[in-house]
Specification:
Layout lengths: L1 H9 L1 H39 L3 E5 L11 E2 L2 H5 L3 E13 L4 E9 L11 E2 L8 E5 L12 E4 L5 E8 L3 E2 L2 E7 H9 L9 E2 L1 E5 L12 E5 H6 L4 H33 L1 H9 L4 H33 L10 H18 L1 H8 L3 H6 L1
Parallel strand pairs: 4-10, 6-8
Antiparallel strand pairs: 1-12, 1-13, 2-11, 3-4, 3-7, 3-12, 5-8, 6-10, 7-8, 9-10
Helix pairs in contact: 1-8, 2-6, 2-8, 2-9, 6-9, 6-10, 8-9, 8-10
Length: 356
């Protein structure tokens, strides 16, 4: 460690270049991990807020809430600890100034998925009143706004806001199920009054429940993974992070190998003086560890700093544990990149190196 640190202090500019590259790679890895977490939460916030274990959909729906349609009475046949019914409809809401793509959830206010209100009325007692995701406040929506929907002439009124209420990246508007049925079916609402999109189950023993005919009980995480684009999006960002790990190892390997080749004669002289290959190899590994640790720690700090200045429209959410794990992996792969240099040092012949 002493030899490694002494050489770093004597050649500050050279090693600063390696550290800077590791810093930039770590910054990109941390930022992508935050972006992956943020985008994932955009899709699942409302579902996570239910704090439920499973969902009942029709088998024909292919695990899609949008394609599922079942009778609300099926909830009684499940014999679950707690159940809640959900009707769903997509639309574009317009308050006169701003248009926004939204998802409407029709719910029974007496059931457990009724959201807690952060501002405004805490009940869905107003006809065609909706409790909106609070992210809409940043878009220019406010309590008391009258909303026109793209798919109907019926107008809604924002009576409250709730946090963490996005589904499939769209803000959610919670409303009474009967009002939603009127929006969806119009004159046929009474005929379709018992139709809902899903039944939400809150029961730790959900796997022991038997689904009625033509329905299936799906674990909540599986349901989320089947949301349109959710898995593909996460896999894309995850593979980008993995590639950055490989790139990081390659960069360190190339730089350290070049430095090692430039110092072959010096290493040969040191070996001729009795310094073992193992000691020199440990010095290279120690150098790599110091440089990688500095780069990762500074990259970590810059990522948090940059995140504090990002606008709320940027879906970045940093998970501390994930970032720590990725930081440790970056240090490990950097050390792995030093293996080529270590192998080169071991193979140095003192006589040839000095004679060269």
């Amino acid at each position: 460690m002493f030899l490694a640190w002494s050489e770093i202090r004597r050649n500050k500019l050279r090693f600063l270049l390696i550290t800077s590259i590791l810093l930039l790679v770590s910054f990109l890895v941390f930022f992508l991990s935050g972006l992956a977490t943020g985008l994932a939460n955009l899709n699942r916030e409302a579902v996570d807020k239910w704090d439920a274990q499973a969902v009942v959909l029709t088998e024909e729906s292919d695990k899609s809430l949008y394609q599922s349609s079942l009778d609300r009475g099926e909830a009684d046949a499940l014999d679950a600890k707690e159940t809640a019914i959900v009707g769903q409809m997509g639309s574009i809401a317009n308050n006169g100034d701003v248009k926004k793509n939204v998802v409407l959830f029709g719910i029974d206010p007496d059931e457990f998925i009724m959201p807690k209100v952060s501002e405004g009325e805490a009940a869905l007692s107003t006809e065609n009143g909706v409790i909106a995701a609070d992210v809409l406040k940043d878009e220019g929506f406010a309590i008391g706004d009258t909303l026109e929907l793209s798919s109907t002439d019926t107008k809604l009124e924002i009576i409250g806001f709730t946090d963490q209420a996005r589904f499939n990246a769209a803000p959610v508007l919670y409303m009474n199920l009967d009002d939603l049925q009127q929006l969806k079916f119009g004159e046929a609402a009474e005929m379709n009054a018992d139709l809902v999109n899903a039944i939400i189950i809150k029961d730790d023993n959900w796997s022991k429940l038997k689904a009625p005919d033509d329905l299936e009980i799906i674990e909540m995480e599986t349901f989320i993974e089947n949301l349109p684009g959710y898995t593909e999006q996460n896999m894309t960002l995850t593979y980008m992070i993995y590639f950055l790990f490989v790139i990081s190892a390659a960069i360190v390997a190339i730089f350290l190998y070049v430095l090692t080749v430039q110092k072959i004669s010096m290493f040969g002289l040191m070996k001729a003086q009795g310094i073992s290959s193992g000691y020199l190899a440990k010095s290279v590994v120690a150098q790599t560890f110091i440089l990688a640790t500095i780069g990762v720690v500074v990259g970590f700090g810059l990522t948090w700093l940059a995140g504090s200045f990002l606008p709320s429209a940027v879906p970045v959410q940093f998970d501390l544990m994930t970032m720590i794990i990725y930081g440790l992996i970056l240090i490990v792969v950097a050390i792995a990149g030093a293996v080529i240099s270590v192998w080169t040092i071991i193979r140095i012949d003192p006589l040839e190196a000095i004679g060269g």
